């Protein structure tokens, strides 16, 4: 009553043993594919974490640098500016992680929050009544009178270029991990299970427990079993090329590190521009929002203090070098995995499964 290991000679197998063999080959095949996938998956998942840590380190550095700008050069508004600064960097972090937001909305929201502070603490430091209505009017006016000149738009442009590549790389890594998980649990068809039993266990039914499959035979069976998985080859190669492109984009003209480290300078230039144009801005704001209550006495506007570059370069250089090294190491490894799905059958037939360096092997019917 054997269904798979039918043979002319007497056999020591039963139908129940064949069923046990089918369960065994399914389990073994899943384990062997998982073992092949492990290194690749470990590399991708490890780099998702490593990249994220490097991004967060650079973001923290850029945020601290921006906060220190307000504390040293614009002390009258430093306390109130802390929340908009925090929101800006939170939005940037969420964008890199793939949130449904844009760099432009994050930057413009920051400058909308910043203008009421610059106007009431630096341009007109005598203002005492900064009501919600007046603050909201200042926010809305910012969009029309453009107090920060071209600096706010330049910041959007610079950050959009560099953060886009980081965001895409983050999403691509997650996608790669998903693909590997899916192929790991690809179900074996009934025909495949039978073919694997015939290849691996039918010799046992003849008492030939030491005979292993012939190499060519093993390759034919594995290629048949893994046809759906090996079809991913073209897309996987394209995926690796995309990763290569994105890592090059990050390292080239759209350098994430340079863009993030330059945020404080863009904000400083924008504030200086607004202060230099203070009288014209005040005239326009008075017409649109009305005149707020002023403190008694003649308070001169806060003096313009050009800020020198904050000297925290050592931490930044370490984060920069760390990210560059991780990028280089990662893409070199991924390039070596370009043929991963094309060669999966060959790799499963390698090692102990097949007979090498011997004159005899199992061809599915007999010892040859």
UniProtKB/TrEMBL annotation:
Record Pfam families: Glypican
Q: Which UniProt keywords apply?
A: Cell membrane, Glycoprotein, GPI-anchor, Heparan sulfate, Lipoprotein, Membrane, Proteoglycan, Signal
Q: Which family does it belong to?
A: Belongs to the glypican family.
This chain's function reads:
Cell surface proteoglycan.
PANTHER family membership: GLYPICAN, GLYPICAN-5
Q: Which GO terms describe its biological process?
A: cell migration; positive regulation of canonical Wnt signaling pathway; regulation of protein localization to membrane
Name of the protein described by the UniProt record:
GPC5 protein
GO cellular component terms given for this protein: cell surface; extracellular region; plasma membrane; side of membrane
InterPro entries from the UniProt entry: Glypican, Glypican_CS
Protein localization: Cell membrane
Membrane association type: Lipid-anchor; GPI-anchor
Which residues constitute the signal peptide according to the record? Answer: none
